[in-house]
Write the C-alpha cells for this entry.
Amino acid sequence: MNNPPPSPWPTPALDNKELRMSYNIARGEQGVLKFEPYKSILLPHWRFRTVPIAEESSQTLWTAFEYYVKAKDFVGADMARKFIQMGTTRAKRYANHAGGRKYDRTARQVEAEGGKRTELAKSKGHKGQEEKLAASEVFREVWKRCTSCEGYGVLREEWKEKRKDWEKGEKEVEKEDDEQDVEVKEEEETGEE
C-alpha cells in the first residue's frame, strides 16, 4: 500500500462536540463514505483486491481502531470498524458478482426513473472469485475482533448516552465536560494541580 498510516491518527471528534454529536452509528457500514473528516483519513487505507492487500489494509485499519479506542474517540473507532466491515461486504460482493455489480440499476437510476432494482444472479467460477472470498474472510476476522472489543463496547454505550442527552437539548452537560477538560489541559500545560 502506498499510503502509510498517520502517526498518530487524527482525532477531530475529540476536539469538536458538534462533529461528535452529528455522527450516526446507523446500520452496518452505512454512512462510512459520507462522514468527514474520518472518511478522508481512513479511506486511503481501505483495499481488498487481493489477500495480501486485504491483510495489510485490515491490519492498518485495525491499528486505527485500536488507537481510537485507546484515545476514547468513539467516532474514529466506529468509522474504522465500518471500513473493516465494508472490506468484508465489498470483497464478498465481488466474489458473488463478477465485476461487483449486485443490482441491474443504481439507486440513482431508480430515483430518477422510478421502479425498483432487481438483484442480479450470483456468478460462479469467475476470475478472482476465490481471491475475493479469501479477502472477505480476512476482513471478517478483524471485524469480529472489533465487535468483541470491550473498550469499544463501553465507548459505544457512553456515546449513545451522551448523544441521547444532546438530542434532548441537555447540551449543558457537554459544556461542563468541555470546561473541565480545558481546565485540566490548562493545568497540565502550566504544571499546576
Remarks:
- The mean pLDDT is 88.
